[in-house]
Each structure stands twice: as C-alpha cells, then as structure tokens.
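User: My collaborator sent over this chain with a note saying "see what the structure looks like." That's all I know about it. Can you take a look?
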Amino acid sequence: MNNSFHENRSVGLLMTFIGGMMDSYTYIRYGAFASAQTGNIILAIIQAYERQWNMVGKKLLSTLFFFIGILLAKFMIDYFKRKEHHFWRLFLLYFEAAVFFVISLDFLQPHPAIITIMIAFTAAIQWVSFDKINGLAYTNLFTTGNLKGVATNLYDYLSTKNPDAKARFLHFLSVVVAFIVGAIISVFSYRMIGTNAVLIIAALFLYLALSESFLVWRFQRNTNIMQKK
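Assistant: Without extra context I'll predict from the sequence alone. Here is the result:
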C-alpha cells in the first residue's frame, strides 16, 4: 500500500457503486439528482416553465452547493498536500457515512431541500477527491464520461490491438458496470425497505472507511518497523 490508497481499484469501484446508489436514491426519493447537475438544470428550466417553483428552488440549491463542494474539495487537496497529510481522505469517508446516517433520521424528512443540498455538497467533495484508479481518471458519480472511455478505448484496441487501450477499456467498463449495479441495487432496496435504503449507503461508506483505516494503520506500522531496523 502507498500514500494513494484512494486510487486502489477496490476503493474506486465501491465508490462508483455507491455513486450509482446515491443518484438513483436521490432522484426516486426527492426528484433531484445527487450529482448530475446537467439533469438538475434541465429539470429546473422545465419546472420553471410549469411554475413549479418549489421544485426549481430545490434543484438550483443542489447545483449551488455542488459547486461549493467542488471548491472546498480543491482547497482541501491543496491544503493537505502542503501539510503532507497523505491520508486525509479517510476522514471524508467517515464524514459521508455520518451525512447519510443523518439523512435517514425522521426530523429531516419534512425538509427535502436540505437533504438534497447535503447530498449534492457531499457528492461534489467525493467526486473531486476520488478521481483516479491506479492513475487512470474516472468518475464515480455519473457515467457519461466513463461510457466515452469504454467506447473510445474499445475502438482504439480493435483498430491497433494496443494492450494499453485494452487495459483502459476494461478499466472504464468495470467502472460503468459498478455504477449501473449500484443504481439497480438502490432501486430494488428502495422498493423493499423504503427510505431506510439510505442506511445501506451509510453502511457502505462506514465499511470503506474502517477497512481503509485498518490498511493505513498496518501500512504505517510496517513503515515504522522498517525505519527502526
């Protein structure tokens, strides 16, 4: 394990799986997307024409806080890089687990606008902070760019038989599949257990945070042992 634990394939695919769950759950439950701000803007324009102002406001606030989340994530990347704190993203995983647990609580349910803002803000930070798998770019919140990666690299491989193009094709394909499976699981979970489906998202973030914390602890312990020899 190295300092870039967040680039591990298992981390990236699970984050993408969760991203699929987040987007589908948020749309089913609140009529807005967690991360697909293009969709939110288009829906806001349509709903403004139909004078559904409460729906418009919710989507515009979601887009605004998504934007703020991106700015904050960029700031954190620069700040912790200067401080040489390599594993700060672990705290983001615990933060996301806490956010989705809070979202499940009854006192927030009458306030869908607040919930969509919380999800959009959190999703934006996740998107910027976890953006590579083994050095290859990917998107864990929506899949249009990943689909482009599947198609272009498949074409390149079929045209040139370049093994690097094949590796990139398989990389993007696995990401797309993870997103789709996450969305499917989210839909079925919501139909079976209703709003408690959001607790699955919280549990997955907590599992990822705890498992990666253990790996980081073991890595640092072994590093310290080697330095003492």
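A starting point for your reply to your collaborator: Residues 53-83 form the longest helix (31 residues).
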